[in-house]
Design a protein that fits this description.
four-stranded antiparallel β-sheet, single chain, 951 residues
């Protein structure tokens, strides 16, 4: 039994290898157009610098490409570059270029900027006449710049000129010798001066030799339209090399040819690129139908990683000839999305969303098998029987015919071979049910029954060693099922909608897989596994720790016991298990596939021929573990360091090999890193500026890191590049200093010291002056206070004196008024007495003589002046015209009223007034009442206050 199984595996691997060898897989092709490099369509020449950068001769100048950044370098004439040759030595590197009536070289400056130096001016006496430099060739310590009429020979100092006739079409350096194909003439040997015919052109029907390549101990002559010839220089023989694609090459018109490893690569004018092995067998053919951007090849170049670059009439292509990947994408068949792959009976079968297709070396093309023109989910072979699951159910594929399986009537999604309850079966999932297949007496698989008591949409199945069926729902979690002893009925059903108690969503797809015999689940966040001892689902810590972020995996397919493909939403990842750890071995991002699969629907077949086969859109990919050549180690470099002046935005460059000294006003710095790598794999450059950053920072899409407004100080920039697994591949560093701003220099500090000293002196002087002024002011204030005090005292004294005088004046005034009133009253009394005596005399009551004697006596005692008028004048003089103003304002006042007013102003009481006026107190009150009326005073107004305050 074991021997039979081993024989079967060996037979299947042999059969698969036979089929695969005849499938026209081609290596990955990456095309670049003017949209990528922003220059002319046509590209004429290719070379690679010692730093890994690729250079192209383009219609608009010389292009450089480092895997990320394109840059155009113009010539003085702003015309195309037709030829490139790079001379790399220990101490310098020159990139020689040829153009129309112009040739010279680019050389890096100290700041890594390419500067052009023309050699045309070294031959000023030469009159150029449409000389276009089509080739640059090293020979015997000199460089030969070849046009179709002239050869310019540069020895490092001077330029010599030769004008051979016939002129040279191509030179072919061959070790220490150089051969040449002359225009319309023979194939010759060139010694630096003369041309010696080797073969006449009639040997290849008057065609031209376009390449001379090493072939074992001899040479391989490649002609344009007349095939290949083996040239033995030692025996001087020329033998046609008849190969299977010889006629194709003749029709395609070979324009360029190179050697890459054990392969010969031919670029043609109208049919793209061919590759043959050392036995002349075709390896691949790439043209516009299957990957090339243009069929006209103008130049070929093999880089240091042994991949092929093609300069095309429209664009540039990179053919990854030593990549472990290759593709089969038939242009003549639109097969759709490939869901599954099967190699069976020396044929390739593809289950696609448009049906089932088959390919064999005898057919030489894919064709769709009749009856299978429908969405097909899987194609599997068990014991030489082929099962196809599709939208309408499941069918056998036999003799290119569909045989519908009765009973499996709904869409077949997945099928697994398993042993449950000691019985070997096939278990299939579908849109509605689980189907069981058993072997009949002749050993053929046949439909048995649908599992009872369970129905749901199951996408994929896994069965563990305990017989648990793990069924992944298309959208809603996963089921664990147990069948009864007869495998007819589900007796245990558990539905896990989520493994996280914090998640409440009822619609969460959970992927079910198997890894090293263990059931694995992925919910998009973490991996889980089934603990069959505790009968519970637990986090799979080993996977979560070793492969963080990988829980979007939806398939795990083993290559062997220790190597596995993890199929994620956007990549295929090869994972190796060793030492109880899982580690990433390789990654195939969908972005590097020409037509990647749809996310979540990628699939893969591990073949028995040491290859793995990817499902893609419109074809399949092959990953060969035996292919691939170790690539040249690439170091991360600093391509340029630029800074700009903030005042005028002028750009400056720094020498990456020396410590930079940067003025403070130029503290906006940009570093661009260089890592020439062209495989399209995922790399990430990170930078860390010591003294500024606190973590590693991702550079931008151009691998540049910019720092703005850096403070003054010493810095070291570290850069490293990591592959997709996080492994650091290369490290680079650069130290620089941001100088102090002018205001922090020693002379600025001296100036500050002088300014501060002067300011301090000035402030001290001002402080002393302020103290003096303050003391002087204090003295003045004290003196002013003293004088003010004296003045206040004098005012008080004056006030007191005035008050005393006023009081005395008031008192004297009262005395004067009293005396005046007494005199007035006395005068009035005498006048009244005189009038009474006169009345009595007239009445005869008193004799006249006595009466006249009394009258004379009275007259002698009457004053000559009017006492009242005199009183008024004196009173007005003392009281500021009191009577005059009072009479002016109140003209109705009588003399009696005026007297009362005067006495009230002197603040006499009613009693005192009564005595002075010789009237009763009631009479005074009545007089006051009448006076109040005349003065129009209200009852609330005080009459005395009114008189005192009257002005």
């Amino acid at each position: 039994m074991f021997c039979t199984a081993i024989f079967t595996v060996i037979f299947m691997a042999s059969a698969m290898s036979s089929v695969v060898q005849n499938i026209p897989f081609i290596p990955p092709v990456y095309n670049y157009t003017t949209d990528h490099y922003n220059a002319g369509n046509q590209n004429w020449a290719i070379a690679q610098g010692s730093n890994g950068v690729i250079y192209f001769g383009n219609d608009n100048g010389m292009l450089s490409y480092d895997g990320v950044n394109w840059k155009l370098h113009n010539l003085p004439n702003n015309l195309s570059v037709k030829s490139i040759y790079i001379d790399s030595r220990d101490n310098y590197e020159r990139i020689y270029v040829g153009s129309f009536e112009e040739f010279g070289y680019f050389e890096s400056s100290e700041t890594n900027q390419l500067i052009y130096h023309s050699l045309k001016h070294n031959i000023e006496e030469h009159q150029f006449h449409n000389d276009e430099i089509w080739g640059i060739y090293p020979f015997d310590g000199k460089l030969y710049f070849q046009s179709f009429s002239t050869i310019f020979i540069y020895d490092g100092k001077e330029v010599g000129i030769r004008k051979p006739y016939p002129a040279v079409l191509y030179f072919f350096p061959a070790g220490e010798k150089m051969f040449a194909q002359l225009i319309g003439n023979d194939f010759c040997l060139f010694d630096g001066e003369h041309f010696y015919p080797v073969f006449t052109r009639d040997r290849w029907n008057n065609d031209n030799v376009v390449a001379l390549l090493p072939y074992e101990e001899d040479w391989l002559l490649v002609t344009s339209k007349n095939g290949l010839y083996r040239f033995s220089e030692e025996e001087h023989t020329l033998t046609p090399w008849n190969i299977s694609i010889g006629q194709e090459l003749k029709q395609a018109i070979v324009n360029r040819a190179i050697v890459s490893g054990d392969s010969y690569i031919f670029g043609t004018l109208n049919s793209g690129i061919f590759a043959i092995d050392k036995d002349g067998e075709k390896i691949w053919h790439i043209d516009r139908n299957n990957g090339l951007n243009n069929n006209t090849v103008l130049a070929l170049f093999k880089d240091r990683d042994h991949t092929v670059w093609a300069a095309l009439d429209n664009g540039i292509s990179n053919i990854r000839t030593h990549s472990p990947l290759s593709f089969f994408e038939p242009a003549d068949s639109q097969i759709g999305l490939v869901e599954d792959i099967l190699f069976h009976d020396n044929r390739l079968y593809l289950a696609t969303n448009q049906g089932v297709y088959s390919y064999s070396d005898t057919d030489g093309a894919l064709f769709r098998i009749p009856g299978f023109d429908i969405q097909s989910w899987f194609i599997k072979s068990f014991d030489n029987q082929v099962f196809v699951g599709h939208n309408l159910g499941t069918s056998f594929l036999k003799d290119f015919r569909e045989i519908r399986i009765q009973g499996a009537h709904t869409g077949g999604m997945d099928i697994k071979q398993a042993t449950i309850n000691g019985r070997g079966i096939l278990l299939e999932s579908s849109y509605t049910s689980l189907f069981v297949y058993k072997q009949d007496s002749s050993g053929n698989w046949a439909f048995s029954h649908a599992v009872e008591d369970f129905s749901d949409l199951i996408k994929n199945l896994e069965i563990d060693h305990a017989g648990n069926i793990w069924a992944g729902h298309m959208y809603k979690g996963v089921y664990r099922l147990k069948l009864d002893e007869d495998l007819r009925k589900a007796v245990e059903i558990e539905n896990y909608l989520s493994f996280d108690s914090t998640q409440v969503s009822t619609y969460r797809p959970i992927k079910v897989m198997k890894l090293r015999g263990r059931i694995v689940f992925a919910d998009g966040d973490r991996f889980f596994t089934y603990d069959d001892i505790g009968h519970k689902i637990i986090p799979f810590d080993l996977l979560n720790n070793d492969l963080p972020g990988f829980a979007d995996t939806h398939r795990i397919i083993p290559v062997n016991d220790n190597l596995f493909w993890f199929i994620r939403h956007k990549e295929y990842v090869l994972v190796e298990y060793s030492g109880n750890k899982y580690a990433i071995k390789d990654r195939i991002p969908y972005s590097i596939l020409n037509n990647p699969p749809n996310a979540g629907r990628a699939n893969l077949l591990v073949g028995g021929d040491n290859n793995s086969y990817f499902c893609m859109n419109g074809g399949i990919g092959k990953y060969s573990f035996s292919e691939g050549q170790s690539e040249v180690k690439t170091d991360l470099q600093i391509a340029s360091i630029t800074f700009h002046n903030r005042n005028n935005d002028q750009i400056f460059y720094l020498d990456p090999t020396k410590k930079g000294m940067i003025a403070y006003q130029n503290n906006n710095i940009t570093f661009r890193f260089l890592y020439p790598e062209f495989s399209k794999k995922i790399f990430q450059v990170e930078s860390y500026l010591q003294g500024y950053d606190n973590r590693w920072i991702n550079t931008d899409a151009n691998r540049s890191a910019s720092y703005h407004n850096l403070p003054a100080g010493d810095y070291t920039l570290y850069g490293h590049i990591k592959d997709s697994s996080g492994k650091v591949l290369s490290v680079v560093s650069y130290s620089f200093r941001i100088k102090n701003p002018w205001y922090k220099t020693w002379w600025a500090y001296l100036l500050y010291f002088l300014i501060i000293g002067s300011l301090a002196g000035f402030l001290v002087k001002k402080h002393i002056q302020r103290i003096v002024r303050k003391k002087h002011k204090l003295f003045e204030e004290q003196e002013n206070r003293r004088l003010a005090q004296i003045e206040r005292q004098e005012k008080v004294i004056t006030t007191l004196q005035n008050e005393k005088l006023e009081a005395e004046l008031t008192y004297k005034g009262k005395e004067l008024a009293s005396a005046a009133m007494m005199l007035i009253n006395h005068s009035e009394f005498l006048k009244s007495l005189r009038e009474s005596i006169q009345v009595l005399i007239l009445a005869g009551k008193i004799n006249r003589s006595e009466g006249h004697e009394l009258l004379t006596m009275i007259g002698k005692n009457l004053p000559e002046e009017d006492e009242w008028s005199l009183f008024q004048s004196n009173f007005d003089l003392i009281h500021k015209n009191f009577f005059r103003k009072l009479k002016e304002r109140y003209p109705l006042l009588t003399p009696t009223d005026l007297k009362l007013c005067a006495l009230l102003r002197l603040n006499y009481s009613s009693k005192e007034i009564a005595e002075m006026l010789n009237i009763s107190t009631r009479g005074v009150e009545a007089a006051r009442y009448r006076l109040r009326k005349k003065l129009h005073l209200s009852e609330a107004d005080n009459l005395v206050d009114f008189m005192i305050k009257f002005q």
